[in-house]
């Protein structure tokens, strides 16, 4: 049987990809981290070249024509610019520059928050993995997740001091407190945290050493306090169904402020003021954006006669 030189070239390339799939995936992840905006162009090009053989799902609004993708999954607050409230904040001559410009189309899946991998199964697994470190801690365990200032949510040492003052006020109703700083948390913020709470026997501050206890915190925490800047941190905490308090919401504007408003209206989060009884338990239906979006993808694939392996 005759095989063309092109076939052997393809076979060699396939073998290389198969043998080095681990490093290849790492390279893809690193490339996405550095040049994620290029992924929009690459994905839409693949769909244009092989539209009958691919199903392209774009995560987050691409700020371009949505008909380039088979499905777009994006937070509802990405469409905040179309609301009357947002329109009033933008000079008329600038409105055509702001995206999105049109309401969501039928192939757009709107989520409440960010997509992530936290669900009941992962929390159970993490609870088991971190049992020895967390099981004996006095209850309630209050977990504090601190992010970093963003363009639409700016803050500094002032919010850090507000946070530490509020934590000191509620410390009497806490069994223990675990604080996690992000690797991007500004030094001016972390300095206040360590100064005000670093010597408190009820408080442990994690600042980057391995292993990262984040999943243990989500699994074992009885209540969460999260800085308002991070949609991801808040979304993940809200997937637990446990009390979530947000601090710094008044520092946020534009679509991030709209995200907080939607969570408050649903009873998912409350502002952290320092007057709370942290032993009080309240609940809500956990956010399940990822599972719901996955169901929409499966349904769309089924409509084409395709299926995913379980």
TrEMBL record:
Domain of life: Eukaryota
InterPro entries attached to this UniProt entry: Elm1-like (IPR009367)
Gene Ontology cellular component list: mitochondrial outer membrane
One of the protein's GO biological processes: mitochondrial fission
TM region positions: none
PANTHER family: MITOCHONDRIAL FISSION PROTEIN ELM1 (PTHR33986:SF2), OS02G0535700 PROTEIN (PTHR33986)
Name of the protein: (rape) hypothetical protein
Organism: Brassica napus (Rape)
Gene: BnaC02g09470D
